[in-house]
Amino acid sequence: SSGINAEYGYETFGEYQCPSGYVQEGYGYSTCNYNMADATIRCDRVGCDYSSDGVVNGYEMYEQNGAKWYGCDEGYEMEGDSRASCEDGVITYPVCKLSDGGYYDEECEMPDYIFGGYKFWDSETTTDTLMFNSSQMRVAKYKCLDGMAMVANSDLMEGDTGMTLLDAYGTAVCFYATNMAYMPHCKTTEEAGHCGLPDYIDGGRAYSFTTDPENPLAPIYANYTCYDGYRLMNAALDSDMGWCRKDYSREVPYCMNEYDWFEMEFQLESGDVSKYGVNTGRVKVRKVSPYYGAEEWVTGCDDDMNDNAAGAVCRSLGFNFGKRIEPPSKMDALNFEFGWTNIHCDYDDTIMTSSSCHADEYGMGAICLPSEQVVVSCFDEDYDTEISIRATGRKIFCNFEAMKEDEDMNL
Q: Does this model's pTM top 0.90?
């Protein structure tokens, strides 16, 4: 027929249509007069390859005359025309916006590293949604390197977001509606004003923060819980607490597989309670597991044991403080094998299951006599001391008074 590209068009009762991949120009109808067609239809190949998933949060509905129309997923609505357009080979897809007026922007990026820290969780790459609504925002969690402390973005704790410090701590958020990103920061502990207690630990997480009264972004205490299948190894007696020290060091409990978890049970034996009291004696210890029961009692060798470790033993027994003492000459040795040596703790505020307490199993290379069994003396209060100085004529008198809490200390 005259005026029709027979390679691309086809006749249907005098009506011409272009196949998929071609766009129609002119009228699609033709009349035949003396075997001559007057059709003005033209089929031109479309220069754009439309994608079925070209619309974020949307889907392809249908295709007609080389163009595609799209719809939006539930919770989203079309902004403007639902037809994808193509100009000079560049496709412009429709936009599906959130029902609240925002729209998804693919430029919400979360870097793998920030100054002094790194990303360990991202809502874009995991099905674990934690506590966040990832349909309206991209969320990432960051940790700081040793010697650095996390500082939450205070903007996340204000306005419509209304996160608590625990939620905002180490959290980065980018809202799809605005492409606005709110990032946490890692600073030195001195700059941050706290030790950087973690919000997540292996096998568990913090469930509450207590902050410095003068710095609402500085957690100085945290309480922790473990996930199913784990149990908490406490750093303080009958407590799930972690804490910051004044030197910006930190004490954090940790989670153990429930089948590996154990308690450490201590007892003091002096042979003469009337003479030494219930707070002084040689130390015996054993591990107790809820699955495997109690091990045999053993004692410790006092080689390289420090007073911090003695305090940890005493706090495990319910006292507040303790110190290692030389065994009294008439205190009998215990009839137990040595189990531990080189017992020491880095700080004087924990119990023996703290990660800051260490010991070596007694074995090859360790030689200890029964007289070297560990002896500790426990007490509940520090010593109150008072010093006074007075001068009389050519003499100076210095008076030192020490108030002891426990008469059995015999000091």
A: no
